[in-house]
Amino acid sequence: AASIAGASWGCRVAPLANWLMQARPTRTLLELLFGLDRRVPPPRFARQTVRQWFQNRRRQRATAPASKDHPQIVYFVDTWTNFYHPEVGQAAVRVLEGLGYEVLVPDTRCCGRPLVSKGLLTEARRLAAANVAVLAPYAERGIPIVSTEPSCASMMLDEWPQLVRTSAARCVAQHARMIETLLATALQKSTRRAAVPRTLLYHGHCHQKALTGTTDALAILSAITSGRAAEINSGCCGMAGAFGHEVEHYEVARAIGEQRLFPAIRARGNVDLVISGFSCREHIAHHTGVNARHVVEHVAELFF
Length: 304
Known about the structure:
Elements: H1 2-12, H2 14-22, H3 24-34, H4 50-60, E1 72-76, H5 79-83, H6 86-98, E2 102-104, H7 113-117, H8 121-140, E3 145-147, H9 150-163, H10 167-175, E4 176-178, H11 179-189, E5 200-203, H12 206-211, H13 215-224, E6 229-231, H14 250-259, H15 261-266, E7 272-275, H16 278-288, E8 293-294, H17 295-303
Parallel strand pairs: 1-2, 1-3, 3-4, 5-6, 5-7, 7-8
């Protein structure tokens, strides 16, 4: 809760907060106090969160007549997308609306993944229970719940039913999915074609590989590039949540990326890099200087 509150304030004063957090004295202090390696720049706060953008958009559209023809869908706005990469959330909303959905953004909380990664299961269970209470009414009505962050999707699909052993938690898990899963099916039925074919190289998130696989993401990328998409034959990027930020793990995290992923990125030529996970994006940017974008950003750019 404290970290979410801090991120919220960081976005409110983003220019100042980013300057302060990127400053060498601050990064040195974070290393001394919390063991966060000074060499890794903290993610930059966005000036406007996804939730703020969505609320403003909804107010602007309040005068438009409501349509009963649009099926509803819930977009689970994760912490990373909301505070640091709102462009991913904005792209997701545009794509879902472009596919004919009425997008709902309930007042959910952090999925609890950071707590689980540190073994704080009691606190994670509280967050899971709170999120299940918010999302269960939608799931019970058969409304799909999508996420753009693999680590959050894996929490909904796998950990929440174990942390909150109720029929409501199981119902939420049954209706939760990565946005790629939904888009892969939608694009198969669509007659849309990429306006400008391009080549894309994809790196999948570990939670995604372990739980749902990367077939859907590759199907989407292939559909929007007329078959010019490939997946990097790599394992973990090395970040693994906070692992790559910690002094004691910095060199190990870098070495993991250097095994196969980073060399493939450096040798890719004039090819855009695509990811699904926040950690992957940040780790790749730090060690290779390459700015990767989410699958849904590419779909939004080419189709919506």
